[in-house]
Design goal:
By secondary structure, the chain is an alpha+beta fold. Helix content is about 20%, strand content about 20%. β2, α2 and β3 (about 80-90) form a beta-alpha-beta unit.
Length: about 140
């Protein structure tokens, strides 16, 4: 008897990059959390007015908090800005309700994304085992 396959395909890589079709939408935006890791910590520096971030999903909370803080600061100063956060659609979490929902518009992505294997360790791309959203933080825009 053959064992049934599990729901989630196991990938060998632990470093996943932004799918090209999404990255192209935000060309020219600053990435405070690029791969490979830079010589700065994006959590410790002020951000410019155009930011796109695909943070490590295993350490998502500090990045979600940072983007909300940067957004609030720029909004208070009246700085025109657009911060974009690619994240799992974990809409039931406390950090989503504190740092995303009150401050950002949420773009739901249809289907499962295929992230880029930055280690080149997986034989072929695999769909993410979760839904993904894009949160847009802009001046005085609330979509909830």
């Amino acid at each position: 008897m053959t064992e049934p396959k599990g729901y989630i395909t196991k990938a060998k890589s632990v470093h996943w990059g932004t799918p090209t079709h999404i990255l192209e939408r935000f060309e020219g935006y600053f990435d405070p959390c690029p791969h490979p890791l830079p010589d700065f910590n994006g959590l410790d520096i002020p951000w410019p007015n155009k930011v796109f971030i695909n943070p490590p999903f295993k350490a998502l909370k500090p990045w979600v908090k940072k983007i909300a803080e940067e957004h609030k600061g720029k909004e208070e100063r009246g700085d025109r800005h657009h911060f974009v956060l690619l994240m799992p659609a974990r809409v039931d979490t406390k950090y989503f309700h504190e740092h995303v929902l009150p401050h950002a518009g949420v773009e739901f992505i249809k289907g499962r994304l295929k992230f880029v294997d930055l280690d080149n360790s997986s034989a072929e791309p695999v769909n993410a085992p979760f839904a993904t959203i894009i949160a847009h933080y802009r001046n005085n825009i609330r979509w909830n």
